[in-house]
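Question (not urgent): is this output format expected?
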Amino acid sequence: MKREVRIGVIQIDTVIGDKKANVEKGIQQIQEAARQGAQIVALPELFTTGYSQVILKDRLYDLAEPVDGPFMSLLAEAARDNGVYLIVGFVESRGVTGVIYNSAAFFGPDGKLIGCHAKIHLFSTERYWFRAGNEHHVYNTDLGKISVIICFDMGFPEVGRLLALRGAEIVFVPSAWMIEDLDLWTHNLHGQATANLLYMVGVNRVGWEGDLHLFGGSKIVAPRGRTVAEAPHDQECILVETIDLNEILKARKVVRHIADRRPELYAEILK
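Got this back:
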């Protein structure tokens, strides 16, 4: 029996610093993805505000909100109104003045918060603005075991392996990935899917923020690295595709990357 999940990836441009415009646009895209049958929908990294710290600077603190803040609540309502799971990147405040996170919230189809991931591995200038997270989560849902990491998190092999060991079946990666690192986008998505024999879903921004070129190329990658679906570069689109989680079991019976580990030989990794 198949274990099918219909995934909706929203590859979208944003207006830098305009949460109202971005959220309104995002809600329309969520509605369309749901109309196409998506059960779980994902938006990119820092979707509500745009990404560039060079442009936003101290405005990031004003744009931050808690996960139950006014604009995030609108997105939670959109999840509920359309009956979908929803993943969305935003600037998170946790109530401590001057401390913000690059986070991704995960809402259920009832609009309730399932969890929130704060980016663990901060890239380049992010470390000057954001506090790093320190937790990896795997969420048990009606659709399967789902994890969320953000952009640069995907570049660390240890992350994918840890999530696989915790039972993750689908790893969503909301991102603002720049064209200069297109090679790493491809290698990381396919490498993590192949090494850990699970589904990787890269959800990339599209558009320009100053000199920063965010190229899109969102994709769904199956265990063993097969491309299930891929969005074009440099244009907005909604990618909706059905996957079968039983492909994970089939792959792991043949390629025993998990079962045949020898952790007693890997102590150096922990140093």
